[in-house]
Specification:
The structure is a single chain. The protein is α/β, with parallel strands linked by helices and 456 residues long. Helix 1 packs across helix 11 and helix 3 packs across helix 11. The protein has 14 helices and 22 strands. It has 2 domains: 252 residues, Zn peptidases (Aminopeptidase), CATH 3.40.630; 193 residues, 3-Layer(bba) Sandwich (Glucose Oxidase, domain 1). The strands form 5 sheets. Strands 3, 4, 5, 6, 7, 8, 11, 12, 13, 14, 15, 16, 19 and 20 form a 14-stranded mixed sheet that branches. Strands 1-2 form a two-stranded antiparallel sheet.
């Protein structure tokens, strides 16, 4: 397969495409020549190298992480790019906080004289939401708040005028179907649930897990929320005390303890007229944290634009450079390397190849093109989150971001899957370019997974 064919639309989607109409583009011979710089040999070489044992899985804040950063810097520098991290240089340090939450083996909830005991890991998962050594929740009432969404553009407010300060909210996963059918918007992400709860002053959140609403089984929650969890070092952002999940059965038992029916509450929550329901169920929980701080880094290079009017605008290509690193196999006790060839050595290789193609243009580019290799994606999109909060260029001047998180490995295809279709003005240009290759653009085949919002 000629990977230049696969990546050609990505190369041409920005500074050098001449649009004859809003939905068409002209590819010049110079563009074709630049795209021919993308070869399967180059991409394979990058993939083999950074997914080899020598890079130990590229885990954040490890020696292999630093080695990866230096390799990427060297590659960008050799292509003639300029360093573009905020404040100068190639590296944007990303401060991380690693937290291991020690959770009691059981959690007892009460409603008057009635009690319910849940088992940690089997029935519920809890993690500290704040970077503190000790988190204490005492007799906090649980309130069912439907989807826990405030979306003015949809005339939707699950909280109404109900005060949830200091309380634990029990919330449904996903977002209301009236928003976008089965498509998961950011309102349906678990990150949004915790962020909105913090804005409302809630002490904590319990997300009701179902495989259908989460798009993955309970085992994924168990593995993802166990052990050391990373987040950006606290910069004063509003946070809930506790981030929690519960199985559907456990959630049903919590609601039944209050005399309500979970199915009836969920059905009511599908309406704009829904109001939060105070369950009268109380929860007390003490969490102990082991915290250590470290850092990784985004690697950022750029090719300056030349147009007096457009040079301030930025076209950003991004790909995360980290993977899972090394872990101990619980059965053999041996250290295993999670190499991350597809996720995301392939994406990194694609980005470096695109950078090489851009570096071969004879004429200066109109807009400035940034190549951002982000850190700690596997820990929660942390490098990209930090870059957006502390960007090299103002967010209002970002014309486009094209992200590569895993390249196709099935061979030659006649379609291009576009995550985020309808989210930007690039759709028509991409469709035009694909058509000129005899290909078609298709939307996300699993919109319920919310892949657009999960990408780095």
């Amino acid at each position: 397969m000629k990977l230049s064919t696969l990546l050609l639309p990505l190369v041409l989607l920005s500074t050098q495409v001449y649009a004859t109409t809003a939905n068409s583009a002209v590819i010049t011979p110079e563009m074709q020549a630049a795209a021919r710089q993308i070869t399967s040999e180059d991409i394979s070489e990058h993939v083999r190298y950074i997914s080899s044992d020598a890079f130990e899985g590229r885990g954040p804040s490890t020696r292999a992480d630093k080695k990866t950063q230096e390799y990427l810097r060297s590659e960008l520098e050799n292509l003639g790019l300029k360093p573009a991290a905020p404040g100068g240089g190639w590296f944007q340090d990303v401060p991380l906080g690693g937290m291991t939450t020690h959770v009691p083996q059981t959690l007892t909830l009460s409603h008057g004289t009635k009690q319910l005991t849940l088992k940690n890991h089997d029935d519920f998962i809890a993690s500290a939401g704040q970077q503190k050594s000790s988190i204490n929740i005492k007799d906090a009432e649980i309130v069912f708040v439907g989807y826990g969404v405030v979306a003015p553009e949809f005339n939707w407010n699950d909280f109404k005028d109900v005060d949830v300060k200091g309380k634990i909210i029990l919330v449904m996963n996903h977002n209301p179907a009236v928003f976008a059918g089965k498509t998961r918007l950011y309102y349906g992400r678990w990150t949004y649930k915790y962020e909105q709860a913090a804005k409302m002053g809630a002490a904590g959140v319990i997300i009701i897990h179902t495989t259908e609403s989460a798009a993955y089984p309970w085992q994924v929650v168990q593995s993802s929320w166990t052990g050391e969890l990373f987040e950006l070092k606290d910069e004063g952002k509003l946070r809930v005390k506790m981030k929690g999940w519960a199985t559907e059965e456990a959630s049903r038992n919590i609601v039944e303890l209050s005399g309500h029916d979970l199915d009836a509450l969920r059905a009511a929550a599908e309406s704009r007229t829904f109001r939060p329901v105070s369950l009268g169920v109380k929860i007390s929980l003490d969490l102990k944290n082991t915290i250590h701080y470290s850092q990784s880094a985004n690697v950022i290079g750029m090719i300056p634009g030349s147009d007096p009017r457009l040079a301030k605008e930025a076209v950003i290509y991004s790909a995360h450079h980290d993977h899972l690193g090394m872990k101990i196999d619980p059965q053999s006790g041996k250290s295993l390397i999670y190499h991350g060839a597809i996720d995301n050595a392939s994406g990194v290789s694609g980005l470096l190849s695109i950078a090489k193609a851009y570096s071969k243009f004879d004429k200066p580019l109109k807009r400035t093109v940034y190549f951002v290799l982000t850190a700690s994606e596997e820990q929660g999109l942390l490098g990209s989150e930090y870059f957006v909060a502390h960007p090299s260029v103002s967010v209002k001047d970002m014309a486009a971001n094209i992200n590569i998180d895993g390249m196709g490995f099935y061979g030659r295809t006649r379609d291009i899957t576009q995550f985020g279709q309808g989210m930007s003005s690039l759709d028509g240009v991409l469709e035009s370019l694909a058509s000129q290759q005899g290909r078609v653009v298709k939307p996300d085949p699993q919109p319920e997974s919310g892949s657009f919002y999960r990408a780095d």
